[in-house]
Design brief:
2 copies of one chain form a homodimer.
Chain A (H helix, E strand, L loop, with lengths): L1 H32 L2 H8 L3 H7 L3 H18 L8 H16 L1 H17 L4 H19 L9 H23 L4 H12 L6 H4 L8 H5 L8
Chain lengths: ~220, ~220
C-alpha cells in the first residue's frame, strides 16, 4: 500500500514535470516545430517515463491546453458586477506575462487549434466564463438594457484574443496591460450604463492589481 | 526587344503563378508544414522556374504577405466619415472569405509573424490604414471629443484580428460578417458621437455590401 502510494505520487509528479517541459517547448517552438525529444531533454526524463503518460505530441498538447480550465477555476471573481469582467481579463493578461503554461496554451490554441485541427473547447471555456461574468454584471444592474449576453461574451473574448496577440507581435507583450486598459475604455460605453461607467476601473481594480498570477512564475 | 518583352511578361506571369500556388499552400498548411516541393507541384512549374524568383520558402512568405499592401491600396474609402472605417473592415472580411491570398497572409502573419519571426510591417499597414480612416472620421465630426486616435486605431485593428480568428475557429468563418456587425454595435458607442451613431450601418453600407472582394475569387 505504502509502496503503491509512493509510486502513484511519483507518477503524478513525473506527469507534471513532463507537462511543464512540454509547455516550455510549445511556448518556444509552437506545435509543428516542437519535438518529443526536445521535451524529453527539457524534462530530463527517459522516453519510457514520458510515453507512459503521453503517447504522442498531440496528447501532450491537449493536456497542456486542459490546464487552462484549471486556471479559469482558480481566478478571483469577487469584484462587484462588471468590474469582475475587467479584473478577470487583467488577471489572464498577467498570467500570460508570468506563466509559460498559459503562454503555451494560447500559442497552441491559436496556431494548432485555429489552423490545423480546430478544437472549440478551450475557446468555449473562456466564452462561457465571460458569459457567466456578464450575467452577474446584468444582475447587478451594470449592463445597458437589451444587451445580448451571448454576443457580448463572444465579442469580449474575441477582442481580448486580438489585443493580446497584437501586443505580443508589436511589443513582445510589454504593453499588454496598457492595451487592455485602452481597449476597455473604448468598449465599456457599449456595454455598461453611463452611471456604472463612472465607477469602473478599466485597468482592473486594486484587488487584481495587487495579485499575481494564480500559478507561480517559473 | 520584342523577345525581351515577351520574356519579361512571361517572368511576371510565372512569378504570379508561383505566388498564387504559395498562397494556396500556406493557407492550407501554414508556414512550418508548407514545402517548396508542394508549392512547385501546385504551380505546375519546375524547380528552376520557381527558384529563379524566390530563393526560399521564407522569401515566398514575405512576397505573399506583401500582397496585403496591394489589397489595402485598392480598397474603397468613399463612404462618409466613420462609415468608411466600418466599410473597410467589412470589405476585408469579404476578402478573407473569397481570396486565398488574404487568408494565407493572415495565417502567415498570425502564425509565423506572431510566434517565429515577428515582423511588424503587415500589422502596421492595417494600423496605419485604420489611423488614416479615423482621422477622416474625426475631420467629419463623427468621433467623440478627446479620443486618442493612435489608441483607437490599435484597438480597432487588434479587435478585428481577434473577431476574425474566433470566427475561423468556431465557425470556419461562416459567421464572420455577423460577428463583425455585433462587434461594431458594441464598440461604436465608445468611438462616435451619439448623433452619428444613429446614422451608421454597423453591417457596412450598401456600397460595400454590393461589392465583392477587390481580387476575384479563384
Amino acid at each position: 500500500m505504502g509502496r503503491s502510494m509512493a509510486r502513484q505520487e511519483r507518477a503524478v509528479r513525473t506527469r507534471q514535470e513532463v507537462l511543464r517541459a512540454a509547455a516550455e517547448v510549445f511556448d518556444r517552438r509552437g506545435f509543428a516545430a516542437a519535438t518529443m525529444s526536445e521535451i524529453l531533454s527539457v524534462a530530463g526524463l527517459t522516453k519510457g517515463a514520458v510515453y507512459f503518460h503521453f503517447a504522442s505530441k498531440e496528447e501532450l498538447a491537449h493536456a497542456v491546453i486542459a490546464e487552462q480550465s484549471t486556471w479559469a477555476e482558480q481566478v478571483d471573481w469577487s469584484a462587484p458586477g462588471f468590474q469582475a469582467v475587467i479584473d478577470v481579463s487583467v488577471a489572464y493578461a498577467r498570467a500570460l506575462l508570468d506563466d509559460p503554461f498559459i503562454r503555451a496554451t494560447v500559442r497552441l490554441v491559436i496556431e494548432h487549434g485555429a489552423f490545423e485541427a480546430p478544437d472549440v473547447e478551450p475557446w468555449r471555456v473562456f466564452i462561457d466564463m465571460a458569459r457567466q461574468l456578464l450575467q452577474r454584471a446584468e444582475e447587478a444592474g451594470d449592463l445597458l438594457p437589451g444587451l445580448d449576453l451571448d454576443q457580448a461574451a463572444a465579442v469580449v473574448t474575441a477582442s481580448f484574443t486580438g489585443i493580446q496577440l497584437t501586443s505580443q507581435v508589436l511589443a513582445g507583450r510589454a504593453d499588454l496591460l496598457e492595451r487592455i486598459t485602452a481597449w476597455w475604455k473604448l468598449l465599456l460605453p457599449g456595454l455598461v450604463t453611463p452611471e456604472r461607467l463612472l465607477t469602473l476601473d478599466p485597468g482592473g481594480s486594486s484587488r487584481v492589481a495587487a495579485r499575481t498570477a494564480a500559478r507561480p512564475a517559473s
